[in-house]
Design a protein that fits this description.
This protein is α/β, with parallel strands linked by helices. The chain is 43% helix and 15% strand. Bound molecules: guanine. The site of guanine has 9 residues, from β4 and α6.
Amino acid sequence: MGIWLEGKPLADRIRDQVAREVALAREAKGTVPGIVAVIVGDNPASQSYVRMKEKACRALGLWSEVLRLPAGTTRDVLKARIDELNAADHVDGILVQLPLPPPLDSQEAISWLRPDKDVDGFHPYNLGLLMENRPGLRPCTPTGIVELIKSTGVAIEGSEAAIVGRSMIVGKPLAAMMTNENATVTVCHSRTRDLAQVTSRAGILIAALGKPGFFGPEHVKEGAVVVDVGSNAVSDPAEIRRLFGDDPKREQDLRDKGYTWAGDVHPRVIEKAGWLTPSPGGVGPLTIAFLMKSTLEAYQHRRG
Ligand code: GUN
């Protein structure tokens, strides 16, 4: 039987440290770090992420603003607004909430950011620094995952790590980070031929596929560290029963909201894994904590 690896204790430590440094900056300089989130259209998941980021800023003493643009915003208007934020001295971090509604091109919009304000670490310049293993702003979710794995005491160096998912937000930058930590990394995706054969060899397994409860014990090595990055809204009652049996909390969720959250890893994997992150409650809190830390670093670097 493995150990549930919660994100909150580590996230709280990071947040406390950021809050202390923000308070010191306020005393010494009379300014605090601040972030502007740019959100285009009304994607409900994006709205909810941005609300969580605003709440974290308030709790830690940073300032935040949300720039809401309508779904039909043109490329030129978006670029002009990003240029204004790039030029504004009091703005330390700019975050373009992804995905952008078509025909806007997410990669192109990210490339308009000033790299030293790119607190998501998605700009090609910052990704280049990551590839070179030089200091720079790093993507927040992969950073949280690496720190969470380190918190188990399991050595990353020399381990076999399987990452399932090759997105620019999680899989690809995480592969670079784990390689920088001297793991032997395999990146799997939808075209991987025998997925279970690859993942069941890995002492560290990171699931970022976006399919609720996809990974079962057959995908997992005995005693492995399993990080579940999946965050899927599930509304089908049969699917909820497959994942959670007749858990009354899930049935309550379904009645209250019409869905419940599920990760990519089936909860019964806890019986075989050494560690398993819950979803929600695993990686999520760390993403936000490291976003706050990156905003503080961007402030210190540019006006500290
Ligand atoms: N959409 C999903 N995850 C993220 C993230 O970490 N940052 C941004 N900007 N958008 C996202």
